[in-house]
Amino acid sequence: MNVLIVYAHPEPQSLNGSLKNLAVETLRSLGHEVKISDLYAMRWKAMADAGDFSDRAYPDRLRYAGESKHAYLGGSQSADVAAEQEKLLWADAVIFQFPLWWFSAPAILKGWVERVYAYGFAYGVGPHKGERWGDRYGEGNLLGRRAMLSITIGGREPHYSDRGVNGALDDVLWPIQHGTLFYPGMAVLPPFTVYQADRLTPEGWEKAADAFRERLSRLFIDEPIPFRRQNGGHYDGQQVLKDGLGAGASGSRIHLLQAGEPAERPVGEIATTERRAV
């Protein structure tokens, strides 16, 4: 299988660098092909701006989404963006290796998403009508790929529990896991985490390394987070969860499939009311 590692840390000798190297070694030993996007080493341009477009569709005022669509469909994207899109389409799984900084990913990784996720590639895909508002949240051009976050965290694990002061980790990572990875179609695995990263002892590293090797060995086996698909029939025409679903859950957890609920429609199926209108 093909695995892309998107790595975002400025220090090669960091814990993140060690986890990245371990992932490459482990995955290749398991027979997988591996490519790496080392964003700091690549000196990745994080700013999404007019410099991304050589052939402007709207020369008077920058309309980034419109220019992104024009460049993607017209084949005039910058070479660095096109190369990363090719890696994503090549990959069967994508691992994002980064430190959790201020409750999110480093700016350089956010910039990678903003530029690589072009209009027509990661969003603005599929018909928009009725209960189907585009091919997103479980559908899209990255459908069929798996994604996993591998993150280091300075705080303690209890800080990121349901009652922890920082909030539950699933909620902290919701914008990334649900919004950035699930949105264009990837199946998202539970994250691999190393807490108190700046206090890790040699013994702690060995324990973390063993756990990471085990997770990597199950990269194509483990069940993904059971996010509801937008077009699976559980959301109405306003993309709001229908009555009777999500009982007993709250917050972002209502958007996880729960036992006893109606099955979702197959991927790509058009609802009966929409089919009549076609």
UniProtKB/TrEMBL annotation:
Keywords: Oxidoreductase. The keyword Lipid metabolism does not apply. InterPro entries: Flavodoxin_fold, Flavoprotein-like_sf, NAD(P)H_dehydrogenase_qn. Residues 1-215 form the Flavodoxin-like fold domain. It comes from the Bacteria. SUPFAM superfamilies: Flavoproteins. Belongs to the NAD(P)H dehydrogenase (quinone) family. This is NAD(P)H-dependent oxidoreductase. It comes from Chelatococcus sambhunathii. The lineage of its organism: Bacteria, Pseudomonadati, Pseudomonadota, Alphaproteobacteria, Hyphomicrobiales.
